[in-house]
Amino acid sequence: MTLFLDHWVDGVRAAALASVLSVSFAGSVSAVERLTIDLPLLDVNVSLNLKGARTTRELIESNPDLQELDRAGDGSVSRLLGQFLTAPLPQRTSSVLEQSVGHPLLEQALLAASELVKVEGLPADTSGRMLSDALQAAYRDGEPNLLGLLRHVPGESLSMDFQALAFYAKRLRANQDDARTLVQQGTAMAPAPKSLAESGAEGWTRVEIRFPAAHRSQLLDITVLTPQGTSNGKLVVISHGLWDEPDSFEGWGRLLAAHGYTVLLPDHPGSDAKQQKQLLDGASPPPSAEELRFRPLDISVLLDGVEAGTLLTGQQIAIDDVAVVGHSWGATTALQLSGLQTTSRKLKTRCQDPLDLDRNLSWVLQCSWLSGADQGSLADSRVKAAVVVSPPMRLLFDESSGPFLQAKVLLVSGTKDWIVPSDPEAVVPLKGGKPLANGHRLVLASGGSHFNLWAPADQNEAPILGPLILAWINEQLAVPSAHTFSGGGWGHASVPLVDVTGQL
Fold it and tell me: Residue 234's domain spans which residues?
């Protein structure tokens, strides 16, 4: 019984949070008095009296079913509800929300949550203003917890249907099924030799520099890795994802540098880890749609600097033969530089449907790019090869521009990535042949998630994708090496890597 109650309260926690996010603001409308939770599997609903209850005990006493569950579970309901409803909310939550009101990122998150709750007499608010006002009122009245927040939500009553959560779970599973099938039908590549996978542990030097960019108000922070041995004269730029930093991918860079490449890892200041900290401190709003244009410009500025001799001074670099590697938003940036055209067309037609069967968490970010999508086609002809890991791409790009890419693109996607799932964001966009014309490839990582394929600087183990990235760039930039993509031997022992291009 106790285990059942634990899961039940966990469900209530998730649903209650979703409901708070999806209620609308209606000026002087009175606060919500009752929260009803529908549990279809048990064919019951639980009604909580929010108006009269200020403690966990009063909530339980407002509902006979809860009283019975609490007695049967030896007080488990009381304890778990207490932990859930009365735990203090982070002090910075209010300032974060205030900075985010009306921002497309928050609007998309609230749109998704709106399907989990129905508010009597009020439409859903996706601006975030209601949530911010309710939270401020809870702090003002000395109730800085979820119970206090719920008590200050406007309206008459809320109802939550767990059937919506089941729909979301089923959709997430469906968004990964095709990728799993492709992996099962394919053949995993033989693991890379241990000596190759570990060769990035030495053979490189590291410096941090700052470089000006006309489109930025601040200097760009750049990590530079150069080979200690003979340089092959080739340049690789690695772009990080949303709220991340170069250190998360330095393992890739070290392996490349150890094999002769000069590697630049820029910090994108409008969407990096520092910007996230500012957001959480209430000092900055979420990244703007303008960052969709600024990120590829960051990289093109670095290439301009190398070409002009003001960056990597004294090094002989083949500036017209560059590779770009990216993860998540950084992978989207690499696709932009490779020549894939961006468009607002699909963003306009699909972002407002929370029941779209292809919808996934990456759409929250993609839909926030709407106002900048038509200005995001920023190909750089100097980029000839790209490795893109888990790129949000389904809504942003015009797939018909795929055959015109000037760079050879390797797309890597994890079959357990629930943030950028493989089916809608990798498999479906590449079906039909057009985007895969001219030698582009899709590799699926069996068991790969959004966070286990990267390569932090302090990681003890060799990076999972390191040999694959090296093999692809060696081949596409025609660097003499026994280690190439078509030669194989770039797989991983515990995370099978399968080239599924021929199965699409």
Answer: 194-503
